Amino acid sequence: MPKVLPLVEKGSNYFFHVLAVAKINYDSEYAVNYKDSLLDTDRIFLQENKSLLSFGDGTPPSIYTVLAFFISSIINLSSQDEIDEYFNLVADFVNNKDFAVFCHRYGEALEKIDMLHAGYSEYLKGETVKLNKDQSELVLELGELLKGNYKVYEERVWPVEYPNLKEKSTELYNALKDKVIFQSWDELVGDNYKTNSFQVSLCVANNKGPDANDLGYDKNLHYYKRPTEDLIYFVSHEIGIRYLMPSVNKVRGELHQAGQNVLYDALESLAEFYNLRVLGSGHRGFFPNLSFIEVFEEIYEKKPDHSAAELLKAAILKTH
To answer: What is the largest CA-CA distance in the chain?
Structure first.
């Protein structure tokens, strides 16, 4: 049976640190505390491009954010050499429109994205090839910025925040040892999780910002300073998303008229619907858009043998 593995990752914390200090997506006390950890010119540059870097609540990250912040966090680039190599290859990819070397070097990370979002690697390649000169320059500038600010983070921020993350990871690991999350999802959905673990990358910087950020199929980035039971709830919900994505893909073509926002809301609601049964309790207030919950309950009460795909389709057809 797969395991939930809490992680303390310097790399993923660094990339979300930069977003937090630049106040992309949200403002926080963290941004104030570490304002001086980014060069003023870099902070201003990021703010000027805020609209291109924002994401969350169903709004997917842009190609700039994926290349600069998300793939780098999936890989967990944790040294100056690793960061330099990555962004040098990104620069080659953008300048030469040749995906082969980048794909070969970081193919494992791209495969993890494709496991969750089928075909995303090809989409990324296509969108990068289409970048014009100004758009390409933005990607290159982001790379240089992230290369240039890492040393300060490593020396001044990470030593302060690492002990808190480590303590929480131990606490979360011990709390999860006796949970049967995967077994419960298997039984409810009638499917299996596709890898040996679900990794929970604990993060300091994203308080008040987008949380439970997908880093491929088998890893999410979570704000660490929540009550442990709340964290377990979020983790189980996100594991459920992995179980349910095939059901969404199965009915997507039949329900194209519903729109992406409706499908997103329905997926989040369905994960919550099942998560209430996996954990025996729920925290619906954590999600702003769960308009399908009552519809799922109504349909399920009449026909409890509905598969996840059938339940999803029936609810959307009933409401749209």
So the answer is: 60
